[in-house]
Amino acid sequence: MTGFEVEEIPFDSERLRDYPDPSGRLSNWPAVYAINNHRDVYVGESGNALLRMVQHKRDPKKQHLEMARILLDGTFHRSACYDLESLLIQWFYSDGKFTVINANDGHRNEEYAGRAEFQPRFREIFEALKDRQLFQHTLAEIENSDFFKLSPFKSLVPDQERAVLEILKSLFEAIEMGRTSTMVVAGNPGTGKTIVGVSLIKTLRDIEASGGVDDAEQRSSISDFFASGYPEMLHGMRIGFVIPQQSLRTSIQRVFDRAPGLKKSMVLTAFDVGKSTEPFDILIVDEAHRLNQRANQPSGSLNKAFTEINERLFGADSNDITQLDWIRKQSTHQVLLLDPAQTVRPADLPPEVIGEVIGEAKVSHHYFPLRTQMRVKADADYVGYVRGMLGGASPAPMDFGDYEFELFDDIGAMDARIRACDEKYGLSRLAAGYAWEWVSDPKKKAIKRLPLAKRPYDIEIEGHRWRWNSADKDWIRSADSVNEVGSIHTVQGYDLNYAGVIIGRDLYFDEAAGEIRFDRRAYFDKKGVENNRKRGIVYTDEDIARYVKNVYAVLLTRGIRGTFVYVCDEALREHLRAFFPASS
C-alpha cells in the first residue's frame, strides 16, 4: 500500500461481521479509526480494526454511532498510530463539530523513530477527513485556538505524565486513608502547569464516570485507575479548578463547557471558594502564586468580602490570612500549580508563604517539578537566559536554533513584523510593561460612550500610537487585539506564536552603577506599587523592581516561534544589545 487510505464502513453489527478484507489490512495491521454520528465522535487505534469495531458496537455508550472511518497506511506502526490517535482526539475536540466521547485515559507525547516524517502525513489525513466534512475549521485555526492549547485531551510529555500519575497515586492513597493532602506542581513558564491541571481534572471526572469499565485504547500509566475500586472513591466528590486571573479563567470556562464531564461552573475564583457554603473534596489551583494575601482589593465590595470570608471560615478577621488559607480550609485535597518567579504584584502570595508550601510538599514527597519546555521552541534554556538578562547577569553565547530573538531599534519596524507574523501564523501580538497610563480604559463612563476609533491612545513612541487592550477577557483573540498592546494581566498563562515586547521606561540602566533600575514615576499599575496598609508593609523601589522584572520575564516567554523586543530607555537598550544574536 502506498499513501494512506480511508475505509468507510457503516457502524452496523451485520456489516461489520461480514465486511470484506481481501488485503488483510483491516484485521491485521496498525490502524487508526474515527466512529461518529451527527453529534459525537470516538477515536481509537488497533491492530485489528474490524474486531475492535465489533467490540465497540457492543458498548452501550457507542451504539448510537453510525459511521466508522478506518485510516490505513503501509508505513504505520503502533507508535505512529498512538500519535495520530492523540492528534485526532485533540483536533476533533478543538474543532467543535463533534463531541469527543473518549475518556482521558492517558496519551503520552513521546518521540519515536521517524516521527518528524509522519507529521506531514498526519496533516494530509486531516485534510482528507475535512474533505469528508468531519471538520469545520482549518488546521491552523484549530491549533491556534484555546480549545487546542488548553485541551483536556492534550498529550503529556514524560514529566507531565509523571506528575499526573504521582498525584493520582497520592490522592487515592490519601482518600483511602482518610487523610488530607496538599500537592505542588512547579515549573517555569511554558512547562505546561495549566495543561497538567486541566488534564488531571478531566481524568478524575472520567475515572468517576467509567464505573470500573476499562475501555482504554492503549495501556497508559494511568489506565489502572479506571479499574474497579477507584471510580467508587471519587463518586459524588466535589472538584473545582481555581483560576486567579480573569482573562485565563474565561478561556478555561469555554474549554470546560465543551468537554464531556466538565462544566464551566467548576472554574472558580478564590472568592467563589471562600464564599461557598459547601466544602470541596479536591481543588486544583492554577497560577497559585497569584492568590492574594491580605491587602487592599480592587474594589470596596471585595475588601468587604475578604473580611466576611475570614470571619466565617476562621471566626475572626486577621491580616495573616491569605486566599491560600481559604483554599485549604474549604477543601480536603489541594493541587497547587505554581512558579514563584511569576508573582507580579505585591498583593500576590508572599515569597515566604510560597516557600513554606513548597518545603512542606517536598518533605511529604508531594512536590512534582516540570522541566520540559513546551512553549518556547528554542534549543537552549531561553527562560533562564531571559531571567538572567533582566537580573543583571553577564551575557553568555547561546544558540537558540531557529527561535527568533531580536532587538529592534525602530518600534514601527517591530509593529510591522508582528503584523506580518500574525498574517502568516496568527496569534502574534504586542505586549508591554505597565509603563503607560490606561486612559482609554473602557470601564470609564466617558470612554465607554465613545466608539473605539475615537477613544484616546495610551502609548506613543516615535510617532506610533496604540491603545491598551480594550478587552480584559480573552483579549488575545479579540477582534482588535493586533492593533492594541496587551498587559501582563491579559497575557499571563497564554501562548503566542510571536510576541513583540515593549520594555517601557519603568526600567532603565544606571550607567554609573552598571545596574538595571526601576523608576516608580514611569509605572502605572496602581496595585503594583500600592503599600500594604493592612499589614503595615511599605514597598521600596527595590521591592517593586522584583515584580516589574517578573512582569517582563513573563512577557518575554510568551512567544512560541519568536520574541521581538523594543526598549524605550536608550541606555538600557544598548546594555541589553549584547544579549541578542549579533545578526539582529
From TrEMBL:
UniProt cross-references to Gene3D superfamilies, sorted A to Z: P-loop containing nucleotide triphosphate hydrolases
Domain Schlafen group 3-like DNA/RNA helicase: 182-569
InterPro entries to which the protein is assigned, alphabetical: P-loop_NTPase, SLFN_3-like_DNA/RNA_helicase
Name of the protein this chain belongs to: DUF2075 domain-containing protein
Source species of the chain: Agromyces protaetiae
